[in-house]
Design a protein that fits this description.
- The chain has one domain: Thiol Ester Dehydrase, Chain A, CATH 3.10.129.
- It is built from 2 helices and 6 strands; from the N terminus they run βαβββββα.
- It has 128 residues and is α+β, with helices and mostly antiparallel strands.
Amino acid sequence: MALKIKTPIQMRFSDVDSFSHVSNVAQQVYFDLGKTDLFRELWLRCGELDRVPAVAVSVKTDFMAQIFFGDEIYVTTEVEKFGHKSFTLRQCIMRGEECCTKSQTVMVCFDKSRGESCLVPEVWKQII
């Protein structure tokens, strides 16, 4: 897949514990910022977001290296694969070239008016 989003992260004081580690909860928020940037880019390119939102149905996170206060980090976000009604995101919190934390999220497209899942828009597949 071609579209890969890079989101710089501004670490907040409240993200860090007394050992100067960035908490696991804060790292999930960083991944959400990456998702936000991905969907913003989709909206800018095709305008389909209002009609077809997506919801997270599964999240798996692996913590491979500690992140410390003052580390310069960013999140990469990309679509790993598409299903009929779902797609899988692959994300990493990067410190330079090192992936410190990785996450895999399965998201399902959802039709709010019908209250049920729906097909992934073809235009999303073309863009990504």
